[in-house]
Amino acid sequence: MQPRNMSMSGVVDLAAVKAAQEAKAKAEQARAETARQGGGGAISPADLVIDVDEAGFERDVLQRSTEVPVVIDFWAEWCEPCKQLSPLLERLTVEYNGRVMLAKIDVDANQMLMQQFGIQGIPAVFAVVAGQALPLFQGAAGEEQIRQTFDQLVQVGEQRFGLTGLTVDPDAAPGAAPEAAPAETAGPYDALLEAAVQALDSGDLAGAVQAYKNVLADDPGNPEAALGLAQAELLQRVQGLDPQQVRKDAAEKPGDAAAQIAAADLDLVGGHVEDAFGRLIETVARTAGDERDAARVRLLELFEVVGAEDPRVMAARRALARALF
């Protein structure tokens, strides 16, 4: 099964079409289902590091990611940097004691997964959190960098998705880990939401926008549709823009709100979240009237795309308040 929205690989927060409330509920349901099935939930430290192939990806990565962030190590036997990075990832995963899992994928044996994740070179490290794929880093990395990455991953899993990790028992027998809970039954809007995701993946942005609006017309508070609509509208705005010209205009017209707004959209689509926020906050500070209001409104829209509980959003809200008052 292809990870949702992986055709948009590299767009860190825009890969998410699950809102925080829904993802948290999904994680809680998964844990409840495991308990209902009689699973104690405790696993051996040896089961924190697993080999995954295409056939088991949905079960071992996507479903398990509703309980704990799953780090993915793309490697190959012939890759010398992999031989240095992989043991370090394995050791730190065990040290984190159930707050993350590590899935090792041999790219030679799993070419389809390599293509779906857009892997251009190895080692490459991704994560899947509540079904969402996030690029972490590519190439060699030191222990301190990996620890910082793991810490951020754990924080996002806990704060945005309610993932509390797995219980590890040093005395548990390896291989006795309970199966991840199956996905929840379909909700009333799942077909429409899936159609919207497929439209996004195929580049039909107008279709995606309309599909999300159809859901919101019946269910205005649907968090997945609201976030998906914000994502689709952002991508629709940047479609057809000339990035070079947009950057040139923004550099030459620092006080032009329209130029800065267009550049901020491109920043976010490119994964440069702090740059997008900082650009608009500076625009709010140096403009007035309608231009200032337009920059402020666009910034709030970008907050919705990234997610209200993201630390970068919270910091930017404080900076916006200082710029306004």
Q: TL;DR of this structure?
A:
By secondary structure, the protein is an alpha/beta fold.
Give a description of the structure.
There is one protein chain. The protein has 325 residues and is of the alpha/beta class. Helices cover 54% and strands 10% of the residues. The protein contains 13 helices and seven strands. It has helices at residues 20-36, 57-63, 80-95, 111-116, 143-161, 190-202, 205-218, 223-238, 243-252, 257-269, 273-286, 289-306, 311-324, and strands at 42-43, 49-51, 70-75, 101-106, 124-129, 132-138, 167-168. It is globular, with a radius of gyration of 21 Å. Mean pLDDT is 81; it is low at 1-22.
Return Rg in Å: 21 Å
- Between the first and last Cα atoms, what is the distance in angstroms? 49 Å
Regions with pLDDT < 50 over 5+ consecutive residues? 1-22
In what order do the strands lie side by side in the largest sheet? 2-4-3-5-6
Strand content: 5-15%
Q: Based on CA inertia axes, which overall geometry fits?
A: globular
- Helix residue percentage: 40-55%
Category by helix and strand content: alpha/beta
Main β-sheet: number of strands, strand sense, barrel status? 5 strands, mixed
- Mean pLDDT comes to 81
Order of helices and strands: HEEHEHEHEEHEHHHHHHHH
